[in-house]
Design brief:
GO molecular function, one term: ATP binding
Number of helices: 11
Order of helices and strands: EEEEHEEEHHEEEEHHHHHHHH
Catalytic activity: L-threonyl-[protein] + ATP = O-phospho-L-threonyl-[protein] + ADP + H(+); L-seryl-[protein] + ATP = O-phospho-L-seryl-[protein] + ADP + H(+)
Number of strands: 11
InterPro entries: CDK, Kinase-like_dom_sf, Prot_kinase_dom, Protein_kinase_ATP_BS, Ser/Thr_kinase_AS
Number of domains: 2
CATH architecture of the largest domain: Orthogonal Bundle
Strand content: 5-15%
Distance between the termini: 21 Å
Radius of gyration: 21 Å
Protein name: cyclin-dependent kinase
Helix content: 25-40%
Organism: Cichlidogyrus casuarinus
């Protein structure tokens, strides 16, 4: 049953307390609306799912995001403030952030100096490390899902594809499509169903490279093309991934990509100004280890010398080690009660 709603004539009022201001985003599963909380006067962002609660895909994604964010609380994760339904559509209320990283790259790339990139990257890794410490993988880290405030505080958002590994430990199949292609790890591209936290680390490496290049590192036009671009810079796939590729019916009749025009990652960045520093390349290559079992972890990334060498004094206070965990509030966001959600959400 829908929650109590305002009269029909209040067309710009949502859930009897939010005034619609404007639409600020749109994706495959919903739109994001900037609203004003009429009780507090504060501005919030409301994600309205385009499909109804009766659409199994929409229901799965919405309930998964609600459940996940009710378990995860950290300074670098988006805050879920409330949940309600209107016209059988889920509405998620979040704190408002000025823009996402993609918008910053497109509208104001000069702001992303190397010192600022380091500040932003550390917060992205810190957020992901916290998730991984609770056995949660995000599975869709990309610039659009990294929110920025005017003072460069980072909030990781969009947990509709997140999963907890304690629900489905390593070596148990994750069967659904995840991750935007350009940020997808090779194990996902070949169809490996036994993946884990290393897929997030790969995506972080892609985001890091994109901040430096001001463009996607590997903008593949298909999964096969994506593999080609990766192997062109990093070398051939692991033997385990070749076997998975060959047994994947999606690639039936195709051979694993092998580039005759190889170019090392350092050469790929040769035209970047200022030149890529050794520590920057080292961190990036650690994220791009082709074998996920040997890929660096987020906890190890936070200890990398890149974050501690030649820190700009103006940014130094912001680069102090942030808390890995934050005390969880004792209450749930208002709206749909957690007990009502849990039976369905846990099955998904």
């Amino acid at each position: 049953m829908d929650v109590l709603l305002v009269p029909r004539q209040s067309s710009r009022i949502l859930f009897h307390k939010y005034q619609r201001l404007d639409k600020i985003g749109e994706g495959a599963y919903g739109v994001v609306i900037r609203c004003r909380d009429l009780e507090t006067g504060s501005v919030v962002a409301i994600k309205r799912f385009v499909g109804s609660e009766f659409d199994p895909t929409i229901r799965k994604i919405a309930l998964r995001e609600i459940r996940t964010l009710r378990r995860l609380h950290h300074p670098n994760l988006i805050n879920l403030l409330g949940v309600f339904k209107k016209n059988h559509r889920y509405h998620l209320v979040f704190q408002y952030m000025e823009k996402n990283l993609l918008q910053e790259l497109e509208s104001n790339p000069s702001r992303l100096t190397r010192s600022v990139i380091r500040l932003v990257l550390r917060q992205i890794i810190t957020a992901t490390a916290f998730c991984h410490s609770l056995k949660c993988i995000h599975r869709d880290i990309k610039p659009e899902n990294i929110l920025l405030s005017h003072d460069l505080r980072v909030k990781l958002c969009d947990f509709g594809f997140a999963r907890f590994l304690d629900e489905n430990p390593w070596n148990i199949d994750f069967t659904e499509y995840v991750a935007t292609r350009w940020y997808r790890a090779p194990e996902l591209l070949v169809g490996d169903l036994a993946y884990g936290a290393p897929v997030d680390v790969w995506a972080i490496g892609c985001v890091f490279a994109e901040m430096i290049l001001r463009a996607p590192l590997w903008p593949g036009k298909s999964d096969l093309d994506q593999l080609y671009l990766i192997t062109r810079n990093l070398g051939n796939l692991t033997s385990a991934h070749v076997k998975i590729f060959q047994s994947n019916s999606f690639f039936s009749g195709l051979e694993t990509p092998k580039s005759s025009n190889k170019e090392s990652l350092s050469k790929h960045f040769a035209r970047v100004k200022p030149p890529l520093a050794i520590r920057e390349l080292s961190l990036m290559m650690a994220c791009f280890c082709l074998d996920p079992k040997h890929r660096i972890t987020c906890t190890e990334l936070l200890k990398h010398s890149y974050f501690y060498h030649g820190i700009n004094s103006a940014l130094a206070p912001s680069l102090k080690k942030p808390p890995l965990m934050e005390k969880r509030p004792s209450h749930n966001p208002p709206g749909i009660s957690l007990p009502k959600l849990r039976p369905v959400a846990w099955r998904n």
